[in-house]
# Entry
Amino acid sequence: MVQSNWLKENPNLFVFLPLFYVVWSDNVLSDDELNVLQHRISRQKWLSESEKDFLFRQINPQNPPTPNELKQWLETVHKVPLSPADSLAEIGRKTVAFYAGKNPDADVIRALEGIEDELGFIGREATYAFHPEFRHSITQQLRTRETFDVQRMTQLLEGADAPLIHRVKQIISSPEFAYIETDNLNEYREQILSWAKILAREGLGAIAYPKEYGGQNDMAAYFTVMETLSYHDLSLVVKFGVQFGLWGMSVYFLGTEKHHKKYLKDIGTLTLPGCFAMTETGHGSNVRGIETTATYNHADRTFIIHTPNPLAQKEYIGNAALHGRMATVFAKLIINGTDYGVNAFIVPLRDENGNVLPGITIKDCGRKLGLNGVDNGIIRFEHVLIPKDNMLDRFAKVNDKGEFESPITSDNRRFFTMLGTLVGGRIGIPRSGNAASKSALTIAIRYGDKRTQFGPEGAPEVPILNYRTHQRRLIPLLANAYALHFALQYLTKRFINRTEKEMQEIEALAAGLKAWGTWNTTATIQECREACGGKGYLFENRLGTLKNDTDIYTTFEGDNTVLMQLVAKSRLTEFKQEFSSMNAFGLLNYLAGQAATAITEMNPLIVRNTDETHLLDPEFHLNAFRYRERDILISAARRLKRHIDSGMDSFDAFNVCQHHLVQAGFAYIERIILEQFLEAVEQAEDDGCKTVLKQLYRIFALNLLDKHKGWYLEQGYMEGVKTKAIRKLLNQLCWEVRQDAVPLVNAFAIPDACLAAPIALS
# Structure
């Protein structure tokens, strides 16, 4: 037995036993560890040569202790009364005293002094190897608790829309809306159609239309319905958006009373399924470049809709492959050989029995990466004849003389006015995407709170949400979801209450939030999938479906990179107008303001300030975000001007500066989101909600400052000591918010029937 062997040699040898157990407990004795031990043993004058040989045999890598021997070593030390703070040397001393009946000599104790430092052990944790119950890890103790009223947070998020949200949630939680598992494309598409018909019967499809056409004249409610539906099936959301949004809204916003009377009621009840046929194979984002033609024939007062070449076919058109009976078709208006630009026309596709009409060719796009419940198709027109009244003529028409007529003189202004009325899609898509992000975060954070992994040696495993890396993966994304929620509410209100004067700004804001928000959706769902490990890869846990179905959101309603350039161009236009309207006095004031910024925000004390109060101060965040936005915009404007002044074509100049322009768009949108998040925090009335929202706001602000630290360092706005302090504080905030993470996702109040993810429910 261990005790008799070591006692037989010399009771003082027990001083080495705890150390030998610790170095062997990892099953590998490194060369460095072996050299240290051999050197220490060989220097001990109180040891005889036979005793040294005995000790050398215990640490011989060629003849390691057996598993049973190692367990006996542990049991031997485990019987010794120890204290939590004992070092290996002290444990060795106590082991000798316990088995020899007396304390070892001083030179025996000195044999182990300092050896922990040489071997790289943490001395105060030595006893954990023998008594893991002594360990009291903060990481183990961290638990979910509610520091705020979850129901009040839900009320804060839902606001005045709460009754409508609850109604929609009840509908999509009903047995009729139970998810189906099928690989049959047609079965899935028909299920989506049947769900859309239920929503139409409930009056939700027509909710934005005027009351005389079966609606409630409530555009804000339409966005709320679309967002809430996004907790369920995203194919349904897109089907809903195509039918009642793109198809219906194009008739409503681009048409006039005759179109409204003829079509809107049937569109709202889904009696008349339709499409929105804008995108062409050769022209996606560049709507002005589309090639489909609408040639007017005054003799019989008709238009001929025609696809002149394969690149002009309408592609990826929702509702086209199976269900659409009519379409709003965007085409170039040709009158007597003159091109009057892009206009919109209602073109029949199928008869009442679903048969494709003459001159129409429709091809099914087939399976996609996601959204397979939507029947996307390709449409070609072969000299299709439609009556004159089928032109949607709110902004332009062909008069009784066969002449083009418009209340808007400028072709450019008319075109962008027409498209501006359809900006609602760029509000609905990011709101839908953020709802999908909320679903993914709910699944991943609840799972992280329950799923245990690893933990201190010999102690229970720890919830993975307690690990700092896991917190840094998910909690900043949770902050993003809250931040976007308030920013998109702000955008919706501005769009609903818009004036013509501010429409350009709203369009840019919608484009930017659509791009930023849907990129965030893609990143969030991917991170949530990874954070759930293999469980996240299972179809039953919905993350794969969410990931696939939202991937196209970065392309829907405009490619995100193109949209960010649009944002930047809008900001450059405003910047140019601001300067052109300045007199000399105004310009001097502007320059003085820039100088004041340099003095107050970029002095040596501020750029190195690591005080926590300063780093958490909203004024610091706002100043930093605004400075970044303004500086990037000014530098982009200067760069463009320099290229153009040097003789470069303006088109080439914009091409050279594209990356710069995208960053200008990002800086603008991030400043807007920050401001709206801060305003939401300040307006929160419940103290508990206000406190946790303030923490999320801080995480959002510091996370973006950390993300852009390279830029701030390059500009001299911060120094390394400050960016390091920001990262450290961000880590600590994520640690603190971890306890609130589950209640924060619970506040989204997503119905269990919609989550349908075992890892989030059990």
Notes: The first strand starts at residue 274 and ends at 277. The CA atoms of residues 336 and 358 lie 25 Å apart.
